[in-house]
Design brief:
alpha+beta, 8-stranded mixed β-sheet, 6-stranded antiparallel β-sheet, 8 helices, about 30% helix
Length: about 375
């Protein structure tokens, strides 16, 4: 039975008189993906969950509902409008000639970046090999999809730390206070390693300090992304009661914690080695995936194919493009009269956070333990 993309290719070719080529590649690729998904579901394929990237994907529909209908091409601009907050001090009386300030709105224009990875395979590469063409393609797909997940997790984590708030309304000004103080140079709210009573301040105050600072900044619901040091310590603290660890996230006191492995080196680069975390207000970040229309619909011409595949690691639809070239494949396991198929997988992503009127302020706050924990 022909795969769905192949049927679309044939329909378009029939209507437009386009001669379709390399159907063997599309068919084998679809079977390879089916095997990859089966391996994924059977737990044979283990991987580190991209916790931060997933957090962006989960919150995207809240920020930009229905954006797919607006973006029709790579260069199509999408704009999202929002109402600005107007803050005023209250007056102390009434007036018959009162005058008011006008409200205002702003616009957020998401910017998409294309991420891609490539691999190649020849039609005779599997003729004298223990692995079939489908198995070879499955392996290439697995490597490609894993490359995307590892790379996009780095992109997502870097976006968070790069866009951390440079403004913190928390009034704490005493560096020796258990709740800590905001560092205006690193833009990190620093919590001292020891409490005033000499106790380990991570166990005593880290989560409480984050909650307090976020509440002072008028955020009630939020998630906390931890580096490996903070993650291990927070799991220890949280599991002093009933165990509540679940995959790479857990909830305590209504707050969800995520393990961001890619955050480790970024925290060290800022000078924080005893525990580092980012708190993100719920519904204020988002990642918008997109692929071109030709890939979504499926199109085959005389010289190239446009299609799409689902990455089982993140559940997103990726564009796939391929074209053949005649070549001598003896150096890569093929044969002299061979045909090489070049594949490229790609996806366009726009990482965003909710805009705020105050200069330098974002809904992403950084926290770190300052000093050495004994």
């Amino acid at each position: 039975m022909k795969n769905f993309i192949g049927l679309i290719f044939e329909m378009i070719a029939s209507m437009l008189g386009i001669i379709k080529h390399s159907y063997y590649a599309s068919s084998a690729l679809a079977k390879a993906q089916a095997k990859l998904i089966a391996a994924f579901e059977s737990l044979e394929l283990r991987y580190t969950d991209p916790a931060v990237y997933r957090l962006f994907l989960q919150q995207a529909p809240i920020m930009f509902p229905g954006y797919e209908m607006l973006k029709t091409r790579d260069d199509r601009v999408v704009e999202a409008y929002y109402k600005k907050r107007t803050s005023r001090s209250l007056d102390s009386g009434r007036s018959h000639e009162h005058t008011g300030a006008y409200g205002d709105s702003g616009v957020l224009t998401p910017s998409w970046t294309t991420y891609s990875d490539q691999f190649a395979i020849s039609i005779k590469q599997a003729d004298n090999n223990v692995y079939s063409l489908e198995e070879m393609q499955m392996n290439e797909l697995q490597n490609t999809f894993t490359n995307f997940i590892e790379g996009l997790e780095t992109v997502a984590t870097t976006y968070l730390i790069t866009n951390r708030s440079h403004v913190n309304a928390a009034p704490f000004v005493n560096a020796n206070d258990d709740l800590g103080v905001f560092n205006g140079s690193t833009y990190v709210h620093e919590i001292p390693a020891a409490t005033l009573a000499g106790l380990n301040n991570f166990n005593a105050m880290f989560a409480n300090s984050i909650s307090t600072v976020m509440n002072v900044n008028k955020y009630k619901g939020f998630s906390i992304v931890c580096d490996s040091v903070a993650w291990a310590k927070m799991q220890y603290v949280a599991n002093q009661g009933a165990a509540n660890s679940n995959n790479l996230s857990f909830t305590t006191n209504g707050i969800t914690f995520y393990h961001a492995i890619k955050l480790n080196t970024l925290a060290v680069a800022l000078g924080y080695t005893q525990g580092f975390a980012l708190a993100i207000s719920d519904g204020t970040i988002g990642c918008l995936p997109w692929i071109p229309k030709q890939n979504r619909q499926g199109l085959s011409t005389k010289i190239q194919n446009y299609g799409s595949l689902i990455n089982p690691f993140d559940g997103q639809l990726y564009a796939i493009h391929d074209y053949p070239t005649a070549f001598d494949g003896t150096a890569t396991g093929g044969y002299t009269q061979d045909e090489n198929e070049e594949f490229e997988l790609s996806i366009d992503l726009a990482f965003n956070h909710a805009p705020l009127s105050a200069s330098g302020e974002t809904p992403i706050f950084a926290f770190g333990i300052s000093g050495e924990i004994s």
